[in-house]
Design brief:
Length: about 280
């Protein structure tokens, strides 16, 4: 059935179209997977990252990514992908042709995904592989994937595929939970700040009302000369301190005056006694 579909039917017109990558862009495997997700996207596909050939310690090999087409219009096929971000990575892959076989044998299509087609020299791509090159947001097919004759999927691989699907869902749930938690925290902080400022505003409103009642002045709608009124208030508030300072100065002066009076009276008495003695001597 899938042979009757065109390649554009299988992957969609958007993945066939040209969409150039920025010159000199450096991509990692994660970047390639994001573009794969954009190309083999819901609701037509489920994309999975790092699918092993078995669960637990039985897993030996893995595919960097897999895609499952969900509808007849997409062939209901199983796709496998290998990501290579450098020439050396690709050459290392060529030295281990058996590495991909454990999962490739169950797939309808198998493809290499690279940042640039220059990573692969002419004649190096295995005849059973297609090739995709990263574009700005998606992938571009440069070598269509030949239709393979997959083996019936055994329970070992089926369990591994189910595990990968469950892991994908768990990660999505954790990401959604984390996002909800962060949003809840932000809303909580915003609410707390709002309540704080509302309380402060209410307290200030009460103080303004008390001042207006006691002074007979209205400050809610602004004063023409607020600095003058402020100076007057400051003078009034500091008035008691000024009066106390003056009183202390007067008290000090009075003490000095009393001491001077006593000194003068003593000197007067001494002078009178001296004059009296002098008169008697004469």
């Amino acid at each position: 059935m899938s042979e009757e579909l065109t390649y554009e039917d299988l992957v969609g017109p958007e993945i066939v179209s040209e969409e150039e990558l920025e010159a000199g862009a450096k991509l990692k495997a994660d970047d390639l997977f994001l573009r794969l997700q954009s190309s083999f996207s819901p609701p037509n596909y489920i994309t999975l990252r790092e699918v092993r050939d078995a669960t637990g310690f039985d897993g030996v090999r893995s595919a960097d990514a897999m895609a499952i087409s969900l509808y007849r219009s997409r062939g209901r096929a199983l796709w496998g992908f290998e990501f290579k971000v450098s020439r050396s990575d690709w050459l290392h892959e060529l030295k281990q042709p058996e590495k991909s076989e454990s999962i490739l044998r169950f797939c309808d299509y198998w493809a290499l995904v690279v940042p640039s087609k220059d990573l692969v020299k002419t004649g190096e791509l295995p005849p059973t592989w297609g090739m995709y090159v990263a574009q700005k947001n998606r992938l571009k097919c440069v070598v269509p994937c030949p239709k393979l004759e997959p083996l019936p999927m055994d329970r070992v691989m089926l369990a591994a595929l189910a595990y990968a699907i469950d892991k994908r869902k768990t990660k999505a749930d954790e990401a959604a939970l984390s996002e909800a938690r962060n949003e809840g925290y932000k809303q909580g902080v915003a609410r707390t700040n709002s309540e704080y400022y509302e309380k402060e505003y209410k307290s200030l409103e009460e103080k303004v009302s008390e001042f207006e009642t006691a002074s007979g002045l209205s400050i809610r709608y602004g004063w023409k000369s607020p600095e003058k009124i402020g100076n007057i208030v400051r003078q009034i508030l500091s008035g008691d301190q000024n009066l106390k300072s003056i009183a202390r100065d007067i008290e000090f002066s009075l003490r000095n005056t009393e001491e001077l009076k006593s000194t003068l009276e003593e000197q007067k008495k001494e002078l009178e006694a001296f004059l009296s003695r002098k008169k008697n001597e004469e």
